[in-house]
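Quick one: structure tokens for this chain, please?
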Amino acid sequence: MPQNPQMPQNPQMPQNPQMPQNPQMPQNPQMPQFPLITQFPQMPQNPQMPQNPQFPQNSQIPQNPQITKMPQNPQILKTLR
């Protein structure tokens, strides 16, 4: 009973070197690291907000002219001198 030497080990089967590891796949250089996010210098502190001119600072109140017309007591001036 021979070991059948007519059966070769089929050396014609290559290991398929035509299959590359696909070097055409880039790592997507179009995705930036977002340098467009700034610290928002366009946000003003709203200078259009008035301080409510309907509330005046009481410029219509007079200083009570009767008080300014009070005479200065001459006896006090003499004692201070």
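The longest helix spans residues 74-80.
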